[in-house]
Amino acid sequence: MPRIGMNLLLWTSHVTEQHDAILDQIKEIGFDAVEVPIFDTSDLAPFERLGKRLKSLGLGATAVTVMTAETNPISPDPKIREAAIAHLDRVMECGQAFGCEILCGPVHSAIGVFSNEAPTEDEFKYGVDTLQRAAEKAQARNIRMAIEYLNRFEIYFLTTAVQASRFVRAVNHPNCKMMYDSFHAHIEEKSQATAIASCASETIHVHVSENDRGIPGTGQIHWDEYFGALKQTGYNGYYTIEAFGRALPALAAATRVWRDLFPDPMGLCREGYAFIRSRAGGA
Question: Which phi and psi (to 5°) does residue 262 adopt?
Fold first, then answer.
């Protein structure tokens, strides 16, 4: 049976006790895990509380974060690269507090920050060195990082499966692997199946995300290729739904969600969960 997760960014960028009822409903639907956003790292207490809550519900946990211009792993400024390592370690400290298994996201470079040039080999070397050192921190906290390549409109450093897998192989650390997201691949790849096959040995996490960020299975993603390729490559990690709505204006703006993409979040969860079960049942 597939293990299925739900990204909590559909509701919030910072999980607190106000979201307990959401966790209850996610568990009731049948999900195995939640993906927790870690953006505000100022206080460990909410994450420690969340850990107890997830344990009581029997839910596993992954996490997602992003990097900024001030914590950019590929910056030519060594102080900024040091800040990136410190930031990632703090994020993983927060994740450790709630039992995070995998920290995913575009942790290889700053989101929304562009050089207006193609990525350089110097940036590649900076990124490899930074992530190697961050991976040591991850290993100490028993967390695996899964770097995520994004589409060209959100990032420029890693935008394809081939680029991401090359980067991970260069880092060459068991606690630094990669993830695959159907939404970004739909924009950047020629084929979901070919892309998945190209990075199979490095992939430890996947996002199930429709082309419009709405209900999985209702859009243009080539889902037969996606699920077929993951089954063919023997993938056995979480299938985590990532969708975005308009509940949080700042997040809606960041993800460019300007209209309602589904009737209600829990309806999306139920339909998305059933869709993954029907497609990945034998994966």
Answer: -160, 155
Q: Which residues have a Cβ under 8 Å from the Cβ of 279 and sit 6 or more positions away?
A: 217, 223, 227
The position carrying tokens 């060209």 is 152
| Long-range Cβ pairs for the range 38-46 (8 Å, 24+) | 38/63, 38/64, 38/65, 38/91, 38/94, 38/95, 38/103, 39/13, 39/14, 39/65, 39/66, 40/13, 40/14, 41/87, 41/90, 41/91, 41/93, 41/94, 44/93, 44/94, 44/97, 46/14, 46/15, 46/16
Sequence-ordered alpha helix ranges (H) in 30-173: 45-57, 78-97, 121-140, 161-171
Instruction: State the Cα–Cα distance between residues 25 and 81, nearest whole angstrom.
Output: 40
How far is the first Cα of the chain from the last one, in angstroms, to the nearest whole number?
Answer: 7
Q: What is the pLDDT of residues 191-245, one digit of tens each?
A: 999 999 999 999 999 999 999 999 999 999 999 999 999 999 999 999 999 998 7
Query: Is the CB of residue 84 less than 8 Å from the CB of residue 126?
Result: no
Tell me the three state secondary structure of residue 4.
strand
What SS3 class is residue 215? Answer: coil
Tally of CA atoms within 13 A in the half-sphere of 55 that contains its CB: 10
Q: What CATH fold (topology level) applies to the domain 3-280?
A: TIM Barrel (3.20.20)
Q: Enter the pTM of the model.
A: 0.95
DSSP type of residue 70: G
Q: Per-domain residue ranges for the chain?
A: 3-280
CA atoms of 88 and 77, how far apart (whole Å): 17
